[in-house]
Amino acid sequence: MNISPSHRSPTGHDQQCFPNLKILDAKPGQLKASLKIEPYNRMFPRPALPFELAPRYALSDVLAELSGEPLQTVHGGLIMSLTDTLGSLAVATKGQYMTGVSVDIGTSFVKPAGRVGEELTANAVVTGIGKSLAYTRVDFYNAQGQLAAYGHHTKYIGKSIGHKNDVKFSEDGERVIEGEDID
DSSP for 97-128? Predict the structure, then answer.
Protein backbone atom coordinates (compact mmCIF):
# COMPACT_ATOMS: atom_id res chain seq x y z
CA MET A 1 0.00 0.00 0.00
CA ASN A 2 1.41 3.30 -1.08
CA ILE A 3 0.93 6.68 0.55
CA SER A 4 3.23 9.60 -0.14
CA PRO A 5 6.13 9.98 2.32
CA SER A 6 4.93 13.52 3.05
CA HIS A 7 1.89 11.92 4.73
CA ARG A 8 3.92 9.42 6.78
CA SER A 9 6.37 11.75 8.49
CA PRO A 10 7.02 10.70 12.11
CA THR A 11 7.18 14.37 13.10
CA GLY A 12 3.98 15.46 11.40
CA HIS A 13 0.73 16.57 13.03
CA ASP A 14 -1.07 13.27 12.55
CA GLN A 15 1.76 11.18 14.01
CA GLN A 16 1.86 13.46 17.03
CA CYS A 17 -1.91 13.28 17.59
CA PHE A 18 -2.43 9.61 16.68
CA PRO A 19 0.85 7.75 17.37
CA ASN A 20 -1.00 4.43 17.45
CA LEU A 21 -2.96 4.89 14.20
CA LYS A 22 -2.42 1.90 11.91
CA ILE A 23 -3.08 1.92 8.19
CA LEU A 24 -4.43 -1.57 7.48
CA ASP A 25 -4.99 -1.26 3.73
CA ALA A 26 -4.86 1.43 1.07
CA LYS A 27 -5.99 1.35 -2.54
CA PRO A 28 -6.68 4.31 -4.80
CA GLY A 29 -9.60 6.16 -3.20
CA GLN A 30 -9.92 3.80 -0.23
CA LEU A 31 -8.22 3.49 3.12
CA LYS A 32 -8.76 1.18 6.10
CA ALA A 33 -7.28 2.05 9.48
CA SER A 34 -7.48 1.18 13.16
CA LEU A 35 -6.68 2.94 16.39
CA LYS A 36 -6.25 1.35 19.80
CA ILE A 37 -8.15 3.54 22.24
CA GLU A 38 -5.88 4.94 24.95
CA PRO A 39 -6.86 6.71 28.21
CA TYR A 40 -6.17 10.12 26.67
CA ASN A 41 -8.76 9.43 23.89
CA ARG A 42 -11.81 9.34 26.18
CA MET A 43 -14.14 11.70 27.98
CA PHE A 44 -13.55 11.97 31.72
CA PRO A 45 -16.31 12.58 34.24
CA ARG A 46 -15.85 16.05 35.67
CA PRO A 47 -16.86 17.34 39.07
CA ALA A 48 -19.72 19.81 39.11
CA LEU A 49 -18.48 23.39 38.95
CA PRO A 50 -19.51 25.46 41.99
CA PHE A 51 -22.04 28.07 40.93
CA GLU A 52 -20.04 30.90 42.52
CA LEU A 53 -17.21 30.22 40.04
CA ALA A 54 -19.50 30.34 37.01
CA PRO A 55 -19.00 34.06 36.19
CA ARG A 56 -15.30 33.39 35.56
CA TYR A 57 -16.06 30.91 32.77
CA ALA A 58 -17.73 31.08 29.40
CA LEU A 59 -21.14 29.40 29.29
CA SER A 60 -19.74 26.58 27.16
CA ASP A 61 -17.12 25.86 29.86
CA VAL A 62 -19.77 25.75 32.58
CA LEU A 63 -21.97 23.41 30.56
CA ALA A 64 -19.01 21.16 29.82
CA GLU A 65 -18.16 20.94 33.52
CA LEU A 66 -21.76 20.11 34.44
CA SER A 67 -22.28 17.48 31.77
CA GLY A 68 -19.26 15.18 32.12
CA GLU A 69 -19.45 11.96 30.09
CA PRO A 70 -20.18 9.22 32.66
CA LEU A 71 -19.50 6.34 30.23
CA GLN A 72 -15.86 7.33 29.67
CA THR A 73 -16.13 6.50 25.99
CA VAL A 74 -14.13 7.95 23.11
CA HIS A 75 -14.26 11.73 22.95
CA GLY A 76 -16.10 13.02 19.87
CA GLY A 77 -13.21 15.38 19.14
CA LEU A 78 -10.99 12.37 18.49
CA ILE A 79 -13.41 11.07 15.86
CA MET A 80 -13.69 14.53 14.30
CA SER A 81 -9.89 14.79 14.10
CA LEU A 82 -9.69 11.30 12.61
CA THR A 83 -12.28 12.35 10.01
CA ASP A 84 -9.87 15.11 9.00
CA THR A 85 -6.78 12.90 8.99
CA LEU A 86 -8.31 9.84 7.30
CA GLY A 87 -10.19 11.94 4.74
CA SER A 88 -6.88 13.57 3.80
CA LEU A 89 -5.11 10.21 3.62
CA ALA A 90 -7.89 8.87 1.38
CA VAL A 91 -7.20 11.78 -1.00
CA ALA A 92 -3.49 10.90 -0.81
CA THR A 93 -4.29 7.35 -1.99
CA LYS A 94 -5.38 8.92 -5.27
CA GLY A 95 -1.77 10.00 -5.79
CA GLN A 96 -2.09 13.56 -4.47
CA TYR A 97 1.27 14.60 -3.02
CA MET A 98 -0.45 17.55 -1.32
CA THR A 99 -4.05 17.02 -0.22
CA GLY A 100 -5.17 20.65 -0.13
CA VAL A 101 -7.08 22.39 2.64
CA SER A 102 -10.31 21.55 4.41
CA VAL A 103 -13.37 23.56 3.40
CA ASP A 104 -16.08 21.48 5.09
CA ILE A 105 -15.92 18.76 7.69
CA GLY A 106 -18.54 17.15 9.89
CA THR A 107 -19.23 14.03 11.89
CA SER A 108 -22.42 12.35 13.08
CA PHE A 109 -22.26 10.11 16.13
CA VAL A 110 -24.41 6.96 16.10
CA LYS A 111 -23.22 4.72 18.97
CA PRO A 112 -20.44 4.73 21.56
CA ALA A 113 -17.15 4.28 19.71
CA GLY A 114 -15.38 2.32 22.42
CA ARG A 115 -13.49 2.29 25.67
CA VAL A 116 -9.83 2.17 26.64
CA GLY A 117 -8.11 -0.92 25.24
CA GLU A 118 -10.64 -1.49 22.47
CA GLU A 119 -9.92 -1.04 18.78
CA LEU A 120 -11.72 1.60 16.71
CA THR A 121 -11.67 0.85 12.98
CA ALA A 122 -12.38 3.17 10.09
CA ASN A 123 -12.98 3.04 6.35
CA ALA A 124 -12.26 6.23 4.41
CA VAL A 125 -13.41 6.61 0.81
CA VAL A 126 -13.01 9.34 -1.79
CA THR A 127 -16.60 9.80 -2.97
CA GLY A 128 -15.70 12.34 -5.63
CA ILE A 129 -12.76 14.30 -6.94
CA GLY A 130 -12.70 17.10 -9.46
CA LYS A 131 -10.44 19.94 -10.57
CA SER A 132 -10.87 21.92 -7.37
CA LEU A 133 -12.65 19.81 -4.73
CA ALA A 134 -12.28 16.32 -3.27
CA TYR A 135 -15.05 14.72 -1.20
CA THR A 136 -14.55 11.94 1.32
CA ARG A 137 -16.62 9.87 3.73
CA VAL A 138 -15.21 8.14 6.79
CA ASP A 139 -17.14 5.40 8.62
CA PHE A 140 -16.07 4.42 12.14
CA TYR A 141 -16.81 1.04 13.73
CA ASN A 142 -16.58 0.09 17.40
CA ALA A 143 -15.09 -3.19 18.69
CA GLN A 144 -18.47 -4.89 18.22
CA GLY A 145 -18.41 -4.00 14.51
CA GLN A 146 -21.27 -1.50 14.87
CA LEU A 147 -21.27 1.79 12.98
CA ALA A 148 -20.27 4.25 15.71
CA ALA A 149 -19.93 7.43 13.65
CA TYR A 150 -19.57 8.69 10.10
CA GLY A 151 -17.94 11.81 8.83
CA HIS A 152 -17.57 13.80 5.64
CA HIS A 153 -14.61 15.90 4.60
CA THR A 154 -14.41 18.25 1.64
CA LYS A 155 -10.99 19.49 0.58
CA TYR A 156 -10.01 22.28 -1.79
CA ILE A 157 -7.35 20.73 -4.03
CA GLY A 158 -7.33 23.33 -6.83
CA LYS A 159 -3.89 24.73 -5.98
CA SER A 160 -2.36 21.34 -5.10
CA ILE A 161 -3.58 19.20 -8.01
CA GLY A 162 -0.92 18.68 -10.64
CA HIS A 163 1.98 18.91 -8.18
CA LYS A 164 5.23 17.65 -9.67
CA ASN A 165 5.27 14.79 -7.13
CA ASP A 166 1.69 13.59 -7.82
CA VAL A 167 1.59 9.95 -8.94
CA LYS A 168 -0.86 7.38 -10.22
CA PHE A 169 -1.05 4.05 -8.39
CA SER A 170 -1.94 0.61 -9.74
CA GLU A 171 -5.49 -0.56 -8.92
CA ASP A 172 -4.26 -2.53 -5.92
CA GLY A 173 -2.29 0.51 -4.70
CA GLU A 174 0.99 -1.39 -4.54
CA ARG A 175 2.87 0.20 -7.46
CA VAL A 176 3.40 3.64 -8.90
CA ILE A 177 2.49 3.41 -12.58
CA GLU A 178 2.84 7.13 -13.49
CA GLY A 179 5.14 9.65 -11.90
CA GLU A 180 8.16 9.06 -9.74
CA ASP A 181 8.07 6.98 -6.54
CA ILE A 182 10.04 9.19 -4.16
CA ASP A 183 10.04 6.70 -1.29
Answer: SS--EEEEEEEEE-S----TT-EEEEEEEEEE
